[in-house]
Design a protein that fits this description.
heterodimer, A: alpha/beta, six-stranded mixed beta sheet, B: alpha+beta, five-stranded mixed beta sheet, two-stranded antiparallel sheet, elongated
Chain lengths: 253, 344
């Protein structure tokens, strides 16, 4: 469906985007990536963003996760207007509210799985013992307790991605940004990772935004948004995967 | 964070080892060259402020009449007086160079109380016109013992001279009196052999200043070595930081701030510099010992001071800090989305 109701006013969505624009400069040219995009995502939603390369899905994810800034428009997450935050405030906000999962895991190769998961906690006032307990719990959650002292190079791709998920979870964020988390994995490992994301969403109520090219991965998300050339083309519900979400989780363009 | 800094430092063992080795060699060269300059000035440092040296005003190679002796001695303030001449003999062959002076011995020893000589040896020395004194270090080098005959082939005074070693001297601490140089020089103004009187330190300094250009070159080289290692370390750090831009971006996504990233890079650079500096200092000791042994005939002392060691290590740390500034600045400014795109 192509949504088109600019008057829509959400009650209390976690992510609220209205008339968002983003472009990049390439040499002397200005390349628009997102144009007049509006969208609302409720807390606890599992949303898949699909689209061809260059459609703006990673850019949209980066904007929602506070990694980049829009040129224009409204962008608020959890009631915080991200466009008004300074770099330092944005960093602090990310540390508290967003967990990141990347296609290529992005683990620090010289640190063990345990130490990688612990990294976000080093910025918190938690004691060493508290950090250790938190990390042990997160690693147990992703089923890697017996591998916690292995270095990334000693783990398979699927295991590395599970470590990355544990790292994303460790600060108990509201929002998890997953940028093609299964893009570098074989089918079995991809299924394990997707199972884990579904569990995080269903059992722990994490809001997950999944960017993917893989229709099978997207089919695990109850809500699917397609972007083409920076425009939101469809906003669909997957009844097989869908759970019950409030009505304010609809797209606007 | 220290754990990450430490492990990053040894992430590329070969690169880190070579960088540490480079820094060690630079610090070694720096300390060694500074020590060499200090050795050059050691004659000046050891000079007594209470002794004056009067020489021919035209040049050192011209002598003064012996008759000046009484006139100088008569000047108020002169307590004692001796005279001497550069002998310039060759011991076996030219390679065995060491300075030799023919002196008015009894007086010379009186005004050089820093030479500690047992009374019986002094007595025997003054009794024998062929008697000579050698420093312990010199005697050790050629295996001389008391009573040995030492044959020198004269260059200024042709002939073969046979001396008998009567005393092995040892230097204690000097101290005494005040200068009256101007009075002496005024006394011989407009004479056939005008004099130039200066303190012993100034006299030694005159020798040093003849090689001033060389000393300056040594000092410039010692700092150039440091600049070279600064460039090398900066290159290493820039390379490491460039390779890890993706990781820095990931750390930034987690909330790490530019100062944290700068700290990681600075820490790594300082660690490399510190290890290199420390290794360099450790290598300096045996190297100074080696030079002391090999250049003993030219340098009375080869003084490796604490100041040189501290300066060597401090220089290494400053190099470490400077080398990290640019990479740290770049890493702290890395755009997350951009860097992740590059890695992905």
């Amino acid at each position: 469906m192509k949504a088109s109701s600019p008057e829509y006013s959400p009650a209390s969505p976690l992510v609220f985007i209205e008339h968002l624009y983003k472009s990049y400069r390439r040499g002397s040219q200005n390349l628009p990536v997102l144009e007049d995009l509006s969208l609302a995502i409720a807390e606890g939603e599992f949303l898949a963003l699909m689209g061809p390369s260059g459609s703006g899905k990673t850019t949209l994810l980066n904007l929602i996760a506070g990694l980049d800034r829009p040129d224009q428009g409204v962008l608020s997450v959890g009631g915080v207007d991200l466009t008004q935050l300074s770099e330092g405030q944005l960093a602090a906000w990310r540390a508290h509210h967003v967990g990141f999962i990347f296609q290529f895991y992005q683990l620090i190769p010289v640190l063990t799985a345990f130490e990688n998961v612990e990294l976000p906690l080093l910025l918190t006032p938690l004691s060493r013992r508290e950090r250790r307990d938190h990390v042990a719990l997160a690693i147990e959650l992703v089923g890697l307790s017996d591998r916690s002292h292995h270095y990334p190079a000693q783990l398979s791709g699927g295991q590395q991605q599970r470590v990355a998920i544990a790292r994303a979870l460790i600060t108990d964020p509201t929002l998890i940004s997953a940028d093609e988390p299964t893009g570098d994995l074989d089918r079995d490992s991809a299924t394990e990772v997707l199972d884990l994301l579904c569990r995080l969403n269903e059992e722990f109520g994490k809001t997950i935004i999944l960017v993917t090219h893989d229709p099978e991965a997207a089919s695990r998300a109850p809500r699917l948004i397609r972007l083409i050339k920076g425009n939101l083309i469809t906003d669909e519900r997957n009844n097989k995967a869908a759970r019950h979400f409030p009505d304010n989780s609809q797209a606007l363009t | 964070m220290f754990k990450l800094t430490w492990r990053n430092t040894f992430r590329h063992p070969l690169r880190s080892t070579l960088t540490v080795a480079g820094m060690a060699l630079a610090v070694l060269a720096f300390c060694l060259l500074r020590t060499m300059v200090a050795a050059w000035y050691s004659g000046v440092a050891a000079a007594s402020p209470v002794r004056l040296i009067t020489r021919n005003a035209i040049s050192l190679v011209f002598r003064l009449p012996l008759s000046y002796q009484q006139k100088i001695a008569a000047i108020p303030g002169i307590v004692n007086l001796s005279y001497g001449n550069w002998f310039g003999g060759i011991y076996i062959d030219e390679r065995n160079f060491f300075p030799q002076f023919a002196v008015y011995l009894s007086k010379y020893l009186e005004i050089h109380p820093e030479y500690v000589i047992p009374p019986n040896q002094k007595f025997k020395l003054l009794q024998d016109r062929r008697g000579c004194v050698a420093g312990r270090q010199l005697a050790r080098r050629y295996g001389w013992r008391l009573g040995d005959a030492i044959v020198l082939k004269g260059t200024i005074f042709p002939g073969e001279y046979r001396f008998v070693l009567k005393v092995l001297s040892q230097v204690a601490a000097p101290e005494l009196a005040g200068p009256i140089a101007q009075k002496i020089d005024a006394l011989f103004k407009n004479s056939l052999a005008e004099t130039l009187t200066e303190s012993e330190a100034a006299f030694q300094m005159g020798f040093v200043s003849m090689t001033e250009a060389l000393l300056l070159a040594i000092q410039v080289v010692s700092w150039l070595v440091i600049v070279v290692i600064l460039v090398l370390l900066a290159n290493t750090m820039a390379m490491s930081a460039r390779e890890r831009l993706g990781e820095y971006a990931v750390l930034k996504t987690m909330g790490y701030r530019p100062r944290h990233l700068a700290g990681l890079i600075m820490g790594e650079s300082l660690l490399l510099a510190f290890m290199g500096g420390l290794l360099g200092l450790l290598l300096t000791f045996p190297m100074v010992h080696f030079f002391k042994t090999k250049l003993g005939q030219y340098f009375r002392v080869f003084p490796l001071t604490n100041t040189t060691l501290a300066l060597g290590l401090a220089t290494a740390l400053v190099v470490g800090l400077l080398a990290a500034i640019l990479p740290a600045w770049r890493a702290s400014r890395v755009g997350i989305a951009q860097a992740l795109r590059r890695v992905g």
